[in-house]
Structures are given as structure tokens and as C-alpha cells.
């Protein structure tokens, strides 16, 4: 533990010297036992701020549209594979003048 620094010129009064030493020791104890004033804990976790229900709903809708489009493409590819990929090249369009 630190001792009170001795004065260059010793104090004539022992009472004054002991009062200063006691005050210095009290100061050192307060500095040693000081608690921080800044709160360094993590903030509270509020789930309703992090769970965006509208964003989840839009993502679900987007994925359902993608699934539907993929299913339609798969049906078209399956139809092409069943018919051996033949195309009808007839032109039934009649030209008008």
C-alpha cells in the first residue's frame, strides 16, 4: 500500500501530519474501490425488432412464385420430351390485303 509522501520540510505538528496521511489513505482507498460509471454491458435483445414478419411474408411469396414458374417450365420440358421435340411448322395464317 502506498504511503503518504513525506513533505520536504517535515511538519511541526504531528496531528497535522497524521491528518494529511489519513486523508491521503482515504483518497487511495476511494481510488482503489472506485466503480466504473460507463455501462459496458450488451444492450437488451428485443426480438420484435429483429423479427421482420412482413419481410418473411414477402420472401415466402417470392419463393412460391419461383416454385410455380419452375413447375410450369418442368411441365413444358416434359411435354417436349414426350413428343420427341417435334415442332409443328405449318402456317395456317391467311394473309389479308
From TrEMBL:
Family designation: Belongs to the CFAP97 family.
Any Pfam family hit: Hmw_CFAP97
InterPro entries found in the cross-reference section: CFAP97D1/2 (IPR038792), Hmw/CFAP97 (IPR029488)
Tree of life domain: Eukaryota
Protein name in UniProt: CFAP97 domain containing 2
Amino acid at each position: 500500500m502506498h504511503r503518504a509522501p513525506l513533505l520536504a520540510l517535515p511538519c511541526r505538528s504531528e496531528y497535522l501530519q497524521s491528518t494529511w496521511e489519513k486523508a491521503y489513505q482515504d483518497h487511495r482507498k476511494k481510488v482503489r474501490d472506485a466503480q466504473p460509471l460507463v455501462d459496458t454491458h450488451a444492450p437488451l435483445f428485443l426480438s420484435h425488432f429483429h423479427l421482420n414478419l412482413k419481410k418473411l411474408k414477402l420472401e415466402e411469396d417470392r419463393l412460391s412464385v419461383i416454385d410455380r414458374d419452375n413447375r410450369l417450365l418442368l411441365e413444358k420440358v416434359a411435354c417436349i420430351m414426350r413428343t420427341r421435340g417435334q415442332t409443328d411448322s405449318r402456317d395456317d395464317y391467311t394473309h389479308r390485303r
